[in-house]
Amino acid sequence: MSKEQREIDAKLVQAYQSGNKEALTQLVQRWHKIFCDKAYWIVKDANVAKDIAQDSWNKIIEKIHDLRDPNTFASWSLRIVCNKSFDWVKKRNRTRQKLQTYNYG
Q1: Over the stretch 7-35, which tens digit does the pLDDT of each residue have?
Q2: Nearest to 52 by CA among 38, 39, 33, 37
Q3: What is the DSSP track for 50-100?
Q4: Which is nearest to 38 in space by CA: 8, 5, 80, 66?
Q5: Mind giving me the DSSP string for 24-43?
Q6: Is 69 left (phi over 0), alpha (psi -120 to 50) or beta?
Q7: Which residues contact 52 (CB under 8 A, 6 or more apart)?
Q8: In terms of Cα–Cα distance, which of 15, 31, 33, 34 is closest to 23?
Q9: Terminus-to-terminus CA distance in the chain, angstroms?
Q10: Which of 13, 20, 35, 94 could form a disulfide with 53 if both were Cys (CB 3.0 to 4.6 A apart)?
């Protein structure tokens, strides 16, 4: 990501933190596909990846006012997407283990 891209994101984050709702719309337009792609890379299911991206936006919107350095939006938000994706994988693996134990135990 270029310095210019980071600066654009930082300005949008600051604008949203100051009450500009349009800034969030622009962040979503800039980042939603990236979030979906990152989640898909981890979970390998397009529908699940879309759900994870949406859940990530919910968490981002909830916590964005706590983001002290708007220049870190990219890494901060992608960490949220990755964590939600890894959580989904862990939950799926636990469910599979339980089913295998139940079927073969």
Answers
A1: 999 999 999 999 999 999 999 999 999 99
A2: 39
A3: HHHHHHHHHHHHHHGGG-S-GGGHHHHHHHHHHHHHHHHHHHHHHHHHHHH
A4: 80
A5: HHHHHHHHHHHHHHHHHHHH
A6: beta
A7: 35, 39, 43, 81, 84, 85, 88
A8: 15
A9: 50
A10: 35
Instruction: List the one residue out of 89, 26, 34 whose CA is nearest residue 56.
Output: 34
Q: Which residue has the tokens 């949008």?
A: 12
Residues 78-104 have pLDDT tens digits of 999 999 999 999 998 887 776 667 666
Question: How far, in Å, CA of 89 to CA of 101, rounded?
Answer: 18
Biggest distance spanned by C-alpha atoms of the chain: 57
Tokens of 61: 């919107």
pTM: 0.89
